[in-house]
Amino acid sequence: MIRTQNNCTNIQYKANALPNLPEKTMASLAMKITLERIALYQFTPQHCAQARDMLGWDMDQLSRESAVSVQAIQRFEAGYEVRDVTRLALAFCLEAQGLVFFPGFTPGRGMNIKGATPNPMERPDYALIE
């Protein structure tokens, strides 16, 4: 049993449910999971509100751009838990606008930087986005 857990979710995958993948593919999957964990912990509710302010976006525009509901954005920025996929969708959307996020700092503008957050549309739980 492979188990991943954080404050937002508790996901379990049966080891035999994973296809018999080549070692290189498994390493790629491990890297993807690691990048998701990093993105989840470094993108904070304060970052979200600060990034919206930097871009001149209200919650409605962020909702349209990220496919995350206004209610979920409000909950996240107020410090309540949201699903991992929701948090990743917000980070991915804002990074696509050239913003970068580091713990303890306000968002910065990256020059020719592709964000580190993986595209959440590739996650099996994308349909659960809030």
Offer a concise description of the structure.
With 130 residues, the chain is mainly α. Helix content is 45%, strand content 9%. It contains five helices and four strands; from the N terminus they run ββαααααββ.
Descriptors:
single chain, 130 residues, mainly alpha, 434 Repressor (Amino-terminal Domain), two-stranded antiparallel ribbon, two-stranded antiparallel sheet, 4 strands, 9% strand, disordered N terminus, Lambda_DNA-bd_dom_sf, DNA binding
What does this protein structure show overall?
There is one protein chain. It contains five helices and four strands; from the N terminus they run E-E-H-H-H-H-H-E-E. By secondary structure, the protein is mainly alpha-helical.
Question: Which stretches are low in confidence, meaning pLDDT under 50 for 5 or more residues running?
Answer: 1-17
Task: State the distance separating the first and last CA atoms.
Answer: 27 Å
Q: CATH class, anyone? A: Mainly Alpha
Radius of gyration: 15 Å
Oligomeric state, counting identical vs distinct chains: single chain
List the domain count as a whole number. 1
The fraction of residues assigned to DSSP E strands is 5-15%
Strand ordering within the main sheet? 1-2
Summarize the helix and strand pattern as letters: EEHHHHHEE
Based on CA inertia axes, which overall geometry fits?
A: globular
Summarize the main sheet: 2 strands, antiparallel
Helicity, as a percent range:
40-55%
**Average pLDDT figure:** 77
- Alpha plus pi helix count: 5
Annotated CATH architecture: Orthogonal Bundle
Structural class: mainly alpha
Instruction: Tell how many strands the DSSP assignment holds.
Output: 4
GO molecular function, one term: DNA binding
